UniProtKB/TrEMBL annotation:
GO biological process: DNA recombination; DNA replication initiation; DNA replication, synthesis of primer; double-strand break repair
Organism, as annotated: Paenibacillus piri
Superkingdom to which the source organism belongs: Bacteria
Similarity comment: family membership: Belongs to the helicase family. PriA subfamily.
Phylogenetic classification of the source organism: Bacteria, Bacillati, Bacillota, Bacilli, Bacillales
HAMAP family xref list: PriA
Keywords: ATP-binding, DNA replication, DNA-binding, Helicase, Hydrolase, Isomerase, Metal-binding, Nucleotide-binding, Primosome, Zinc
Domain Helicase ATP-binding: 302-468
Pfam family, one: PriA_3primeBD
Name of this chain's protein: Replication restart protein PriA
Binding residues annotated for Zn(2+) 1, in chain numbering: C578, C581, C618, C621
GO cellular component, one term: primosome complex
Binding site for Zn(2+) 2: C587, C590, C605, C608
Length: 877
């Protein structure tokens, strides 16, 4: 038996599977998806088994054996291994990078150097102090060296650093033993994190015995008697620490009972459960509203038919999408299948988790980045060991190692955070569709403001190249690729672009559109007022609050209702500027302004971490009129305090939410009405549901509009719709004020009218006109280097090479734009240039890019030049 293994080195030369022979005793343990340790040149590396064969194509004698198997259960399922290959082909990354992205950080390999005692040294032990050296001579060992050898022999292997620490005074002797070959170096592959084990007291099978034993003990052993009686009454395994705490006794007491053999103390694996301290009130399914019932019907039908299908659920804020998700998941679980729910990191709030834990209790695992490595690993193990059947998590939860997925839900599917910005630069929505094809599962994309890509998918006919049902043979990777394209998320050239008159959902569209126009129980959407801030200024109001928003806040304070204020993070910058000469503090390594941090009174670069003390005198003109723009939210908080003395404000932004659990703390306080205003960045716009919020203010609604990004209008529309959706979700009606300098912009006007349709029509028209996604696809290639001339030359020849290769695709339209300097022209002392490929259709564009980039790999190596490729980029900086 042979295994094909992808090793842990992300490089072109190793981006293929290598053959290894599986030694007989390991056969039971090695499977597709296993992690193994394999010899690779002089080293030992971790790798993933991606295939198992009975023969190799060349001399089997040359094939080396697998050195070790790392896990009892393979951490990856075969379908994940297959998916990794798809990801590496689609997003042009190394296969190992995709595989690594699928396992928790705790399982990433850590290479350790250990020593063990050489065999001949072990033999020499009985011969007294003389042992054979490597050269066959007899060496006289010092007593200290013998101590070292004895220590290592007892332990089996010892990590070199630990050994040196233990024998700190004799580091030289350790080295000598190694040089003489008495200690041999072995490389060990270790997990970064191990399962947590806790000493646990295990009572005997017949607890009645315990009482009897308690009687037998002499009176002075009162503590021991107490332990025995307690266990007789509670005959279950209990953590040693808990037992000690319960009885106020010492470990010695319990240990002496264990030594008598009356009970056992064992190390038992436990799960670090971040939610262990919390209890969740169980919720029952609600009676659905008519629109919910229809939508639920369509989804659950598909789930029951075990048919692959993608739905786009467009439901206005407060229409009850979550209840639909919950009931659909129930259908899925009833069929014995599993469900994955993706939510953006930022809205993975305790409130969201509560809704799922409340309905499905212990069946739910939660994966988000605020968990510690250990907690994350343990949640993941619950999935692996099939102790849970629902996972709710951010982007990477799409790789949950389930084996029978019936339903994948992506909430707020328009969020750009579903795209990973570092390699593998995958989009979780596309990966979800591919994975659903493998499992014949249903995908539900939910949003109040669906992305143009998904909307476009509902307007298109499924392409003929792939049946989204994945019927033929099930797990075909090709089907997955075809389905992602067939789902219409990305156009292929055969498909016709929709005309704007087309009904939103033609028969047999690739994605089925489901709509919920109404809020639950017919609650009205909030009334939205657009405030022209230019007008305010003209009338002499220089405050950041318009007069009407000021009045509205005052009114809420009066009525004891709550207000949410959104300040777009990117809007109010936090830079340091000289008011005399206009000097702005910039990072010396990156072309970006430094950010002022009030708490540490330092200015800092967000890209490279460079920091300096705040400046009080302008370095350029020596003026003292330096203005520190604190984080926008801080300034707003200050101004609120001035305008409304005694107002209680909770501020949520990067500065106030770094601490673990702080997010939760603030939201709980707000929910308990311990504050009048919740003020924050994007994080207050998403998913929050508070009954007493009747006012929402967006302070600088249009700042995103000015970003050099073709999605600027879409982002603005989404943000405003989301934040407006926080108001009046319950009995009390809501009101929204949008302050802007661009009151007539269509994204702001449509958002204020809750008019998704007119927005999408306008935006689709513009995208089509300018040949942007979803009508065309983009690949962004960014090159970076310390020196401009070499960088420019390389960028130009790469672009030329791409143009050359693109000719072979004619008549398919492929356009190579650039090279130009990137919008952020320098990061960490490296200059950046970019090329953009704009194209329609799948063709073999990825092959082409791979081919072009491959020609520059030597350049990358020799000159430390980096070329990074982003397929379907979300950020164009
Ligand atoms: P969305 O995610 O679409 O913005 P939610 O799922 O948060 O909306 O629902 C809004 C509110 O309506 C929540 O408080 C939810 O509990 C409630 N709700 C949802 N469905 C129903 C229903 N069928 N009957 C009564 N209340 C409901
Ligand atoms: Zn100055
Ligand atoms: Zn910097």
């Amino acid at each position: 038996m042979y295994a094909k293994v992808i090793v842990d080195v992300p490089a072109k030369q190793t981006n293929r599977a290598f053959d290894y022979w599986i030694p007989e005793p390991m056969r039971e343990w090695v499977a597709v998806g296993s992690r193994v340790g394999v010899p690779f040149g002089p080293r030992k590396l971790q790798g993933f088994v991606v295939d198992i064969r009975t023969q190799v194509d060349y001399d089997p004698a040359k094939v080396k054996p697998i050195a070790e198997v790392m896990d009892v259960y393979p951490p990856l399922t075969p379908d994940l291994v297959e998916l990794a290959r798809w990801i590496s082909q689609t997003y042009l990354c190394h296969e190992i990078t995709a595989l690594q992205a699928m396992i928790p950080g705790a399982l990433k390999a850590k290479y350790e150097r250990h020593v063990k005692v050489a065999e001949h040294a072990a033999d020499g032990r009985s011969a007294g102090t003389n042992v054979g050296g490597s050269g066959g001579q007899h060496l006289l060992l010092l007593p200290e060296q013998l101590d070292i050898l004895r220590y290592v022999r007892e332990k089996g292997t010892v990590e070199i650093g630990a050994l040196l620490q233990k024998f700190a005074a004799n580091g030289g002797l350790v080295k000598q033993l190694m040089l003489e070959g008495l200690l041999l170096e072995v490389q060990m592959i270790k997990d970064r994190m191990a399962a947590k084990k806790v000493l646990t007291v295990i009572p005997p099978d017949q607890p009645a015995q315990l009482l009897q034993r308690a009687e037998e003990l002499p009176a002075r052993s009162a503590k021991q008697k107490e332990v025995l009686r307690y266990l007789a009454e509670h005959p279950f395994p209990i953590k040693l620490s808990e037992l000690l705490h319960e009885l106020g006794t010492s470990a010695g007491t319990v240990k002496s009972l264990a030594e008598k053999g009356w009970l056992a103390i064992e190390e038992v694996e436990v799960f670090r459960d971040p939610y262990a301290q919390r209890s969740f009130r169980r919720t029952e399914p609600l009676a659905l509203m008519p629109e919910q019932r229809h939508v639920f019907g369509r989804i659950s039908e598909a789930v029951q038919d075990e048919r692959h299908q993608v739905f786009l659920l467009h439901g206005v804020t407060g229409s009850g999408k979550t209840e639909v998700y919950l009931q659909s998941i129930q259908t899925c679980l009833d069929l014995g299948r599993e469900a994955i729910v993706l939510v953006p990191e930022i809205s993975l709030t305790p409130q969201m988790v509560e809704r799922f834990k409340g309905r499905f209790g212990d069946q739910v695992a939660v994966l988000h980045s605020r968990l510690s490595h250990g907690e994350r690993y343990d949640e993941w193990r619950k999935i692996m060991l099939k102790q849970v059947r629902v996972v709710i998590g951010a982007r990477s939860a799409i790789f949950a190692p389930f084996t029978r997925i019936g339903l994948i839900i992506i909430d707020e599917e328009h969020e750009s955070s579903y795209k990973q910005e570092e390699s593998p630069k995958y989009h979780a929505r596309d990966v979800a569709v591919a994975r659903a094809v493998q499992h014949r599962a249903v995908v539900v994309l939910g949003s109040a403001t669906p992305s143009l890509e998904s909307m476009y998918g509902t307007m298109r006919q499924p392409s003929l190249t792939g049946t989204p049902s994945g019927a033929a043979g099930g797990n075909r990777l090709n089907d997955a690729a075809a389905a992602v394209s067939a789902a219409g998320l990305h156009p292929s050239v055969q498909a016709d672009a929709p005309s704007n008159e087309a009904p939103l959902q033609p028969q047999g569209a690739a994605i089925e559109l489901l709509t919920m126009h109404n809020r639950v129980e017919g609650r009205p959407l909030p009334r939205v007022h657009i405030i022209d801030m230019r007008e305010e200024l003209r009338e002499g109001n220089r405050s950041m609050f318009s007069r009407s928003l000021y009045k509205a806040i005052e009114e809420r304070l009066h009525k004891k209702e709550q207000t949410v204020l959104l300040l777009n993070r990117r809007g109010y910058s936090t830079f340091v500027m000289c008011r005399t000469c206009g000097y702005v503090a910039q990072c010396p390594h990156c072309d970006i302004s430094l950010t002022f941090h009030q708490s540490s009174r330092a200015i800092r670069c967000h890209y490279c971490g460079y920091a300096e003390r705040e400046v009080t005198v302008c370095p350029s003109c020596s003026s003292e009129h330096i203005r520190h723009f604190g984080t926008g939210t801080q300034r707003v908080e200050e101004e609120l305090g001035k305008l409304f003395p005694g107002i209680r404000v909770i501020r949520m932004d990067v500065d106030t939410t770094t601490e673990k659990g702080s997010h939760e703390k603030w939201l709980t306080m707000f929910r308990n009405r311990q504050a009048d205003v919740l003020l924050g960045t994007q994080m207050v716009a998403k998913g929050l549901d508070f009954p007493h919020v009747t006012l929402v203010g967006a302070l600088a609604a249009d700042t995103v509009l000015n970003l050099p990004d073709f999605r600027a209008a879409e982002r603005t529309f989404q943000l405003l719709t989301q934040v407006a959706g926080r108001a009046g979700r319950h009995e009390l009606p809501g009101e929204v004020f949008v302050q802007t300098y661009a009151p007539e912009h269509y994204s702001i006007v449509s958002a204020s009218r809750h008019d998704y349709k007119s927005f999408i029509n306008k935006e689709m028209t513009l995208r089509k006109l300018h040949e942007y996604p979803p009508f065309h696809r983009l690949i962004l290639i960014t090159l970076s280097h310390e020196q401009i001339p070499l960088l420019m030359r390389t960028a130009e020849s790469l672009a030329a090479r791409l143009k050359e290769l693109a000719k072979s695709l004619a008549p398919l339209p492929v356009e190579i734009l650039g090279p130009v300097a990137s919008p952020i022209a320098r990061i960490k002392d490296r200059y950046r240039f970019q090329c953009m490929i704009k194209y329609r259709g799948e063709a073999s564009i990825s092959g082409l890019v791979r081919q072009a980039a491959a020609a520059f790999e030597d350049m990358e190596k020799q000159h430390k030049l980096t070329i990074s490729i982003d397929v379907d980029p979300q950020v164009l900086m």
